[in-house]
Amino acid sequence: MKKRSTKKKVLVVALLVAMLAIVAGGTNAYFSKDARARNVITMGSIAIELHEDRIDPESGETVPYETETPVEVLPGAEVSKIVTVENTGTAPAWIRIQVTKRIELAEGMTPGEGEPDTDLIVLDIGEEWTEKDGWFYYCKALEAGKTTEALFETAEFDDNMGNVYQGSTAYIDVLVQAVQTAGNGSSATDAAGWPAED
After folding, report:
1. Model-wide pTM > 0.70
2. Which of 31, 92, 180, 192 pairs with 15 at a CA distance of 20 to 30 A?
């Protein structure tokens, strides 16, 4: 009888150990299943502001550039025009700028063959910008609340502008674009998703 009782005890103990092993296995599976991080992700905004300033020749202070007020220049003259971009959003952004130079000749003036030569307007492009495909790309990510180094600070009118340019009007139009940096290339020139050109 005692031998039989011992066998029952061993069997019961073996069953208990097996049950504990199953319960333990179930517990491990339960915890690994529920052990997941709950992340709250706030989408950042991309917003930029273009600044066009100039150095006032009288006060020496930086003031907003007034496009409504034309500046009279002669060949060889240098005009202050400081172009920067501010990141007013909440996320870092890649920045690029397109510059279009135009010259409208005075009535009755013709440049001879072709159009007026916009290469006679020379911009002092900053070292922090690189040119590609007709755009100037800022060489580093622009953090929220920060402003780029100037794309250019002056426009110089070449000495070789002849009499045909007397009374003409020169325009320097600036278009700026921005895209997110997150998961979007290692530089502005590698980035995708730029706004479509009009």
Report:
1. yes
2. 31
